[in-house]
Amino acid sequence: MWNKLASFILKYNWLLMLLITALTLFFAFCGSKVKMEYDMAQIIPSDEQIVKDFDFFKTEFSNDANTLVAGFKSDHIFSKNLLNELFNTCENLKKIDGITGVLAIPTAVHLKKNKADKKFEVAPLIKKPIENEATADSIKATFNSWKFYNNRIYNDSLNATLIAVTIDIDVLNSPERITKVEEIISVFNMFGAQNDIKLSYSGFPFLRNYRVTTMRKEVQLFLLLSVIIVAIVLLLLYRSLLGVLLPLSIVGIGVIWAVGMMWLFGYEIDLLLGIIPTLMVIIGIPNCVYFFNKYQLEYDKTLQKTKALHHTIERIGNVTFYANLTTAIGFAVFAVTDSKMLQQFGLVAGLNVFAVYIISIIVLPGVLKLLPPPKTNKNNTLKTGFLVKIVDRLKSIAVYQYKAVWGVTIIVIGIAIFGLYNLKSEGYIFDDIPKDSQSYKDLLFFEDNFTGVIPFEIIIDTQKKGAVTKLSTLKIIDKIQREIAADKMITQPLSIAEGLKMAGQAYYEGNPKRYALPTSGTEKNLIFSYLSKTQNNNLSDNLLNRFIDKDQQLARLSFQMKDIGSRQFEEKLVWIQKTVDEAIGEKQFKVMYTGTTMVVLKGYKFLVDGLLRSLVFAFLIIAIIMGFLFRSFKMLIAAIVPNIIPLLVTTAIMGYFNIYLKPATVLIFSIAFGISVDFTIHFLAKYKQELSLNNNDVRQTIFATLNETGLSMIYTAITLLCGFMVFLVSTFEATVYLGLLTSATIVIALLSNLILLPSIILALNKKV
Question: Distances from the Cα of 511 to the Cαs of 136, 145, 493, 722, in angstroms?
């Protein structure tokens, strides 16, 4: 088959290269339209109950992740000048299209009782710029008397305040979202510069904006650095301009195809899809390395260019086909998971890993056919040099000291298994915000001064119209929120109960002591009658209507919390559920725990579980392919064991150094497994060819195999190692770990296949 395929490729190469060119132009056009993803990636499938609950919440109430907050500390917050500056800043923010609300000290409102009309009047705290300090002191006294605002927008004990800007969700889902956030930040920066105040920024719109802009820069940086580093490595290895430009051209075509496919499939570039172009550069290079080395060796034998190319396609094409197939499967299995994020990554990565192989097997012979033949001299780097000495040393260890190799392997496995017990799975809402960045420090500002900005929602369905406004229900809601808010990780809530307390204080002429729920049904009905006649002005879209539905059947309790991580959140959620159940008692209420925090943190566990299942699935498929390829149980055992060791060691490293399992780190196993299997297939395929040529002498066959494939494997490992090191410059911790741990795994996989694999073959074949 491969004999005929090699003849076909060489005969119709010009036509095939023309097809490659046309497809590349098409994908380049498609790739020019691809966009960056802004929303949180959809990890959990839409048919899962947790996603259905979140969609229900957004339909009945509003999105909980559309508020940008700015905060600062000052001993003069209630001075005339600073209040005026804040007032002007809030007015400027309101003028920006797409801003639906601004909540700060100057925009805070209080209710005044109008006895004549039996209604409340909404009175803004500041109507116009303040003229003197006496007025400022009066405003401070009025503001502090309204307990509703305590520790919500002002922390009296720490002299900290915040400004919350609510953005229309349609704007956040539109292309102008980045410029809109930047426009808001520029208004705040002007305020900070004029008053010599350092502001901290947070909230989902701001942090997502940071993530997208940083990710866009890093996608370009990774691609540029990977090309430069791979070019340098290839130049050092081959000392030839052709050995640099030709491989880079092939992987460059692969990058164009990958980005073009993203647009064709309707995907936007997220944190995972963003690393695919760099992966194409790194993973695509080995195809060229193996082809170049084999072509050089075949030409040395035949001294005929066309014949050497034919033999190279026939022999290395078969091996690299299976090597790329296994790597592609390692990625493609993610496409059969339930996670949309993984499906997109798996489909694009899997298809394009194999696409790069097809491109290389067509373009390499076509270009080399037109160029002069390779040089044949004693100084050829394939025959001499430092790396050859390394291969000779490894041959000696693998063949003559294989018992010691087994002993070291057993010790390594024992240490690795012990490290497995320390491995943990945990993710944070803002996992990809670097711990040393200003954005992360700003996040800590809000956690230290206002407990946090991560939304968490509870929906209580009384399952009966009008039941929410019953006094008994209101008391249950108040009990729930008081007990939950007592936790230091969670803020004071917003709910109908809090709104009614504020109305109660207004009903009793602003007396702070009356900030409480009504004590009787009659009192409650009186307060509600005043509220029903109140003309809503800036009371944050009517405080009551935001927290109960139109049928008064659903009640919303809205909390903010610290970014405590998925493991601690699970523990906290169990406690919250127990608290709610005890407060409800025998009432037949249905409770939903939802919000962006709930969906994202629950999604981490879902994602990691899916990744691990995919890895097992990929392992089984690749084992079947290996069995089909070599048709020998002994060879299958020899193939699998060296590929388990690198995964075990990498897992142990994560356990010992407290590197958590999360999406980017679990990807390491898939990438590393595919690369390790590539080494194994190249070794065993050559071993199978050489065995009959060496009269079934296992030891001599191993020597011959290492002589030809060992150097190519080292070349490949060096290229891959240097390529993955580009991820170390990332500002995202998970991406840094991807580069660091994958590089470590490649080294372990190389040694495992060059030393352990021959030792296993010797052990399985006692007659040497």
Answer: 20, 8, 21, 69
Q: How far does CA 10 lie from the centroid of its chain?
A: 43
Cα–Cα nearest to 644, from 753, 717, 734: 753
- 514-547: per-residue pLDDT in tens? 999 998 888 888 888 887 777 654 443 455 668 8
Which ranges in 371-514 belong to alpha helices (H)? 386-400, 402-420, 438-450, 471-485, 496-507
- For residue 465, count CB atoms less than 10 angstroms from its CB and return exposed for 0-12, middle for 13-18, buried for 19 or more: exposed
C-beta separation of 497 from 583 below 8 A: no
Q: What's the rounded Cα separation, in Å, for the pair 46 and 39?
A: 15
* Per-residue pLDDT band at 372 (split at 50, 70, 90): confident
Strands 67-73 and 160-167: antiparallel
User: Which residues make Cβ contacts (< 8 Å) with residue 343, sequence separation at least 6?
Assistant: 334, 335, 336, 337
Give the whole-number percent of the chain exceeding pLDDT 90: 22
Which tokens in the block code for residue 263? 């647009």
Measured between alpha carbons, how far is residue 741 from residues 268, 294, 450, 646, 725 in Å?
27, 30, 37, 10, 10
Q: What pairing do the DSSP bridges indicate for beta strands 99-103 and 160-167?
A: antiparallel
- Write down the pLDDT at residue 39: 58
Residue 336 DSSP class: G
- Read off the pLDDT band of 380 (50, 70, 90): very low
CA angle (573 as vertex; 570, 579 as ends), nearest 5: 150
Cα–Cα–Cα angle for 739, 743, 749, rounded to 5 degrees: 145
